[in-house]
Amino acid sequence: MDGSPAIGSADGRSVVVVGSGFGGLSTACYLADAGADVTVLEKNEQLGGRASRLHADGFRFDMGPSWYLMPDVFEDFFGDFGRTPSQYYELERLDPHYRIFFKDGDQVDLVPDIDQNRQLFESYEPGAGEALDDYLDQAAYTYDVGMEHFVYEDRSRLRDYVDSDVLRYARGLSLLGTMQGHVEDYFDHPKLQQIVQYSLVFLGGAPNNTPALYNLMSHVDFNLGVYYPENGLGGVVDGVVAMAEELGVDFRTGHPVSEIRGREGGFAVRTEDGREFFPDEVVSNADYAHTEQELLVPEDRQYDADYWDSRTYAPSAFLLYLGVEGDVADLEHHTLVLPTDWDDHFDTIFSDDPSWPEDPAYYLCVPSKTDDSVAPEGHSNLFALVPIAPGLDDGPERRQQFRDLLLDDIADHTGVDLRDRIVFEKSFCVSDFAERYNSTKGTALGLAHTLRQTSLLRPPHVSDEVDGLYFTGSYTTPGIGVPMCLISGRLTAETMARERR
């Protein structure tokens, strides 16, 4: 983006940021750079929120996000502070970007070379290579216009859209309709439709409930590329934290917040062990629903319990972190395993009667293919992620059953049998997301990007009940994903500056 954000001056203001996910880290940086006295209170033992790391038996796992997408957003973020990402971590572009195993025995690689991808599409459907060019042209247009005028600009009110400039910018964007309908205009073959829609999982949606506007993710995937940052996504957290400390941010881990209350001239923020902080302003990067329902008194809440119960939440996940003896040659750094018809899996997540999938679609990450430091010599580091419905019962017996199903499925459909080579294993699921991150219903991501939960229909950055209380992160605009949360922090800081004025 051109220019710096309009944060203004916050000299002399003290701010407590609750939670150190990417939204909280970003907000803290912008506020500290503007002169505020910023303290970040983190519930857990390490910074980064869902971008935590697990160290065990010589293995290092990124517990949460593992895809480095939209490198331009990271450049813009660090650039706002006169810095570059390369001052904190290096990037390696992955080739292939990812591999897909279809469960009918088919296998494809998506690569940085667009000509090869065009030939791949053409091999499935005559004319699909040219259709891919058209699809990516539309995706690039949507990305360029959408990012500049609808992502970096916080249009959180209806009147923000009743504007001739907005109407001009919006012309040509797919603001109505679903991704499924949009993709069907370009490709008939179901596998090609899946290839250009797999990234919807990162937005917490399904093809039939995610706005067509998110075709921009194909520009991110095919044109901007997929990267691996030095030391993984945890290394990005380290970089942002290092910059934040240079800007003067004070971090406190092991400080779970139990209450946020207004007081004359500011706030009282209390932690579970009785410590108190008295800032002028508060920003919550904790789960939005948890903040409102658990940390605020009823009269300070914008929404009641019925509102939060009526929301569509992004999937939770069943995760297996595995340390494995030997190589896993047939798997790439990023690997997807997809049923040829994935509707049944999405139905188990978003139906009125959610359940565990019997024929799951899932993701395998093998960072040891790129980074030797994540596993002991002679071993592979691997985690498996299966999107599942939030709120499911995930007791020990259910986890064991699904763990066995998943390992069998991996062996059957990738040819990689892990079952007798596992030397370290840990699962993470619905109840863990709820306990570790205070995540509503154990969602792994927050609010899904459905037609009714996008843009101004997401909860706002500023409380309309409590002066000086703000929100940032994946529940707010622009939404889910590490790049979006970085931008959310900027939008929150800009909102705070407007409110002060």
UniProtKB/TrEMBL annotation:
InterPro entries: Amino_oxidase, Carotenoid/retinoid_OxRdtase, FAD/NAD-bd_sf. GO terms for molecular function: oxidoreductase activity. Keywords: Carotenoid biosynthesis, Oxidoreductase. Residues 23-496 form the Amine oxidase domain. Pathway: Carotenoid biosynthesis. Pfam families: Amino_oxidase. It comes from the Archaea. GO terms for biological process: carotenoid biosynthetic process. The keyword S-adenosyl-L-methionine does not apply. NCBIfam families: crtI_fam. This is Phytoene desaturase. It comes from Haloplanus vescus. The lineage of its organism: Archaea, Methanobacteriati, Methanobacteriota, Stenosarchaea group, Halobacteria.
